[in-house]
Design goal:
22 helices, alpha/beta, disordered N terminus, nine-stranded mixed beta sheet, extended, Helicase_ATP-bd, seven-stranded mixed beta sheet
């Protein structure tokens, strides 16, 4: 190429090089390009690996082409706009049919004594075409699952549930037939089937058919309604209502001019004598006349059959001496001797009977559940353990995992080992499985309902009712609770619903008795103001209540002298802090740690834990163990999550022996607190009511911050069942002779009647 510079023609050879991706060109000297090859050299040279993009064609011709020939648009080109799939016709696909289900099965015959093989027989399978879409039977074909859905045990919402146990098909068919017979079809043309006397009236209208060739027969229709004057040609509602005041309803007995009226009056007298209820009167009146004959109806026979008792109370007062002879090979053995009620319950489990264990808290109800799980492992079946709260499910999963190994957990947010022989889940998950017809129900032998008194809950109790009703007949139930007052009545309802006996096993007293105290101290000087209210024998001590009242009055008089008539306001943060410091100091001196402090407010729990910054209840070795365990647990969190404010706060609290447990705590921190409390490293645990729901984490002492709670509607005192459930956490079996329950009296001492009703 040439370039003019200073009006001098110079032959300069250079190259164009494109740099970057924006089309920037630079001039560089040509390398080894002679003048002869100048025309054949390619300009510009490239530095981009992809090369120069293609030149965009002009669009004028394309637009002109589309405007002149509309068919040339791409949307009309089938080959370019739609994907063509080459398909070869296959006639044999028309001959494909579904595989017929197997009609027969092979049954093995063995000698029952020796087990020797005797032969084989072929048996016909009834209803082999039944599936989960058209049958409620357990004999229906199993659901075909994909590889991904095999791990899901909840079933499908398009399945039909299995037939509930206790519902007899024959009884339902008979009831439907009786209902159809008792309500015959009415003939609208037959006036004798019409209701002539309204319920509660003594007279009415006699409806008769007027002959077609007769005029003025309206008088015959209203013959039962006198004093209306001359009947018009047509009777309207306004005419009838205008003469209602002139009606003489009792004069119908005197009018005997028409034969049908006499017959109607006789039927009215019979109805008065029998005094039928309103519903029965209506049924008899709408039936045909030939069926309404009270004088020929046979008298009602009183039921002489005795009512069947579905609940059987087991006597636990006499020991079971032949227990090990009756069960020589136990499915599971414990390192300690079983109580009488545990042996009685295990005997019923061996007979595959349903059991209701209504034992006191910390009596050992879990032993019965453990034996049921061991039996299912021995029989190669499945057991489902249900609980009302996730904290209890998590704890049982950890315990049973160490004991049996093959244990799974299914809750709303966690699914672990769903194909295990023992599944721990919330009751709502089990209800979903029953309604969705899960195939797990086929292999199910036991369903354990822990804390079954939740059936009395106003919001969630219906879940327990539905599960108990929907369970198939081959499944036995184990009911566990410590706070059901009417055990026999509840067991009778369950047995009557499921048509099977429910054996009730209960205890007479707690293995570790409780002592209830009132604490009125609020400083280190008054930390010894602990007054016994209910002793270990369950006797209410009135003198202790009187002493607590006197101590409160004495302090109130001193405060009024020092601070005026109003004194120190009760319930302020400084007062609460002093109260907790004094009660902790008192418990430390009396060796009553560890403690569970039930507080019915998450905000109050946070305030109490923040006020105890000066409290340190752990030794150096315990601090080291807590530090190692805590950091090992939170190592599963991400780097940013390990420095969350709640994580740092809990590390400081736990190292000082304090713990917090409520619904606002992160799940992993909640489990850390539970496990450290089980190890005895948490000395004081501030918790809400949910911690007491069956969690096997007993302490030496239980403290109630207050006896009033908010139930979602208003404030009220604790119910006796709620108080017993929480107070039952006190007293560790084998470690403590008695359990201590302390009620803090921050304000006034509660009324004696309220305490008596709640504690006894």
């Amino acid at each position: 190429m040439t370039c003019l510079e200073d009006k001098t023609e110079l032959n300069k050879v250079f190259d164009l090089i494109e740099t970057g991706s924006n089309g920037h060109l630079e001039l560089v000297p040509a390398l080894q390009i002679s003048q002869q090859n100048l025309s054949s050299a390619r300009f510009p040279q490239l530095t981009l690996p992809a090369g120069i993009p293609p030149v965009i064609p002009t669009w004028e011709k394309e637009v002109e082409k589309y405007l002149t020939d509309i068919g040339s648009l791409p949307i009309h080109d089938f080959t370019t706009c739609q994907r063509q799939i080459s398909r070869q016709p296959d006639i044999e696909k028309l001959f494909h049919v579904d595989i017929c289900p197997v009609q027969t099965t092979i049954r093995v015959e063995r000698n029952r004594t020796t087990g020797q093989l005797l032969g084989y027989t072929e048996e016909l399978i009834p209803d082999s075409a039944e599936t989960s879409r058209n049958s409620l039977s357990l004999r229906r074909a199993p659901e075909l699952h994909s590889t991904k859905s095999k791990q899901d045990v909840r079933g499908s919402n398009i399945n039909l549930p299995f037939w509930p146990g206790g519902l007899d098909v024959d009884d339902l068919l008979q009831a439907s037939q009786n209902e159809s017979k008792s309500s015959p079809a009415l003939n609208l043309d037959d006036a004798s089937q019409y209701l002539s006397i309204p319920p509660g009236f003594q007279a009415g209208m006699t409806v008769v058919h007027a002959p077609s060739n007769t005029t003025g027969s309206i008088q015959e229709v209203v013959s039962e309604v006198p004093d209306l004057g001359s009947a018009p040609a047509l009777i309207s509602l306004a005419d009838i209502m205008a003469g209602v005041d002139d009606l003489d309803l009792e004069s119908s007995e005197d009018e005997e001019t028409v034969d049908k009226c006499n017959q109607q009056a006789g039927l009215e007298e019979e109805n008065k004598k029998t005094e039928l209820p309103r519903s029965e009167s209506l049924e008899k009146l709408v039936q045909p006349e030939d069926t309404v004959k009270p004088e020929e109806s046979p008298p009602l026979k009183k039921e002489t059959t005795a009512k069947e008792q579905w609940a059987v109370n087991i006597d636990v007062s006499s020991p079971v001496h032949d227990f090990y002879k009756r069960i020589p090979d136990m499915a599971y053995k414990w390192p300690f001797e079983l109580d009488i009620f545990q042996k009685q319950a295990i005997l019923k489990l061996e007979s595959h009977d349903s059991v209701f264990v209504a034992a006191h808290t910390s009596a050992g109800k879990t032993v019965v559940a453990e034996y049921a799980i061991a039996l299912s492992l021995k029989h190669m079946t499945k057991t489902i353990y249900t609980s009302p709260i996730k904290a209890l499910s998590n704890q049982k999963f950890r315990d049973f995992k160490q004991t049996f190994g093959d244990v799974g957990l299914v809750t709303g947010d966690v699914q672990l080992n769903q194909t295990a022989a023992c599944l721990i889940m919330t009751t709502e998950i089990l209800r979903s499985m029953l309604y969705n017809g899960s195939d797990i129900i086929r292999d199910l032998e036991w369903v354990i309902f822990d804390e079954v008194h939740y059936i009395n809950d106003s919001e969630r109790g219906v879940v327990w009712e539905e599960v108990l009703i929907m369970l198939p007949d081959h499944v036995s139930v184990i009911l566990l609770s410590a706070t059901v007052p009417n055990t026999m009545e509840f067991a009778d309802w369950v047995g009557r619903t499921k048509k099977k006996k429910i054996y009730v096993v209960s205890t007479t007293k707690r293995p570790v008795p409780l002592e209830h105290y009132l604490y009125t101290g609020n400083s280190t000087k008054t930390c010894n103001e602990l007054f016994l209210l209910v002793n270990a024998k369950g006797c209410f001590i009135t003198t202790g209540y009187s002493k607590a009242i006197e101590a409160k009055k004495e302090r109130a008089s001193k405060s009024s002298q020092n601070f005026g008539a109003k004194g120190i306001r009760q319930g302020n943060p400084s007062q609460d802090k002093n109260t907790w410091l004094s009660v902790i100091e008192m418990l430390r001196k009396k060796d009553k740690l560890p403690v569970v402090a039930f507080t019915f407010s998450k905000k109050k729990i946070e305030e109490n834990s923040a006020n105890l910054q000066s409290v340190d209840l752990t030794t150096a070795s315990e601090k080291s163990e807590i530090h190692i365990f805590f950091h090992k647990c939170i190592s599963k969190l991400k780097g940013s999550d390990r420095s969350l404010p709640q994580v740092l706060q809990f590390e400081d609290l736990l190292k000082r022996g304090l713990g917090v447990h409520h619904s606002g705590v992160l799940p992993i921190l909640k489990e850390v607190v539970e496990m450290l409390f089980q190890k005895g490293l948490v000395k004081i645990l501030f918790a809400t009511e949910t911690f007491a729901m069956g969690v096997n984490m007993p302490a030496r002492t239980v403290i109630f911050d207050s006896i009033r709670k908010h139930d979602g509607i208003n404030f009220r005192n604790l119910l006796p069942g709620e108080y017993i459930q929480m107070a039952g956490r006190a007293g560790r079996r084998g470690l403590d002779t008695t359990g201590t329950v302390i009620l803090l009296c921050k304000g006034d001492v509660p009324e004696m009647s309220e305490l008596h009703q709640m504690m006894l």
